[in-house]
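Ticket opened by: R.M.
Priority: normal
Category: complex prediction / small molecule

The reporter submitted a protein together with zinc ion and asked that the result be attached to this ticket for the collaborator who will pick it up next week. Submitted input follows.
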Amino acid sequence: MDFSSKLLENAVNEVSRLPGIGKRTALRLVLHLLKQPSENTKFLTEALSGLRENVNSCEKCHNISDTVICAICSNPNRNASLVCVVEDIRDVMAIESTAQFRGLYHVLGGKISPIEGIGPQNLQIESLVHKVKEGEIKELIFALSSTMEGDTTNFYIYKQIESYDVITSTIARGISVGDELEYADEVTLGRSIVNRIPFEQSIKS
Ligand SMILES: [Zn+2]
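Result attached by the on-call engineer:
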């Protein structure tokens, strides 16, 4: 691309670093911003830099949060002994939107994936095992997507905690194999949490 302005070129280059955004889309977005009142660009840049500088992860569940303990973990009306294991915030949002789950979450931050070089040590697994060891959790629900990485991660965690006094279950497979949770509709996802099955049953089938 041949730019008539260095400033425009810089902005396009930065925007095109985002996933799924090519140079042409980046140019379209930047030109759109140029047509808007300058406050809009100011709000956008402030929102992004504020996010980067101030966002935290909850000390208990590792979900993205503005506070040390997130709103879900600090809600006394939620059942702290029932914990749903998910990959990231998108899964928390998907499950919350079903309004079928009143326990807490544990956000792993990804799935074990040797191809991508992600091992158990790169995920929030140790703190989860610790919570189980301490007896804080009565039931653990595995709600990772049913891909090979999801299954491997579930099984790895299960092996770490099977000797402890904790019930393990997995969301019912209304979610088809390979589906990511965030794409499941609310009714299907809600039903799959309510109708969860013992984890042992899922690894035998
Ligand atoms: Zn939390």
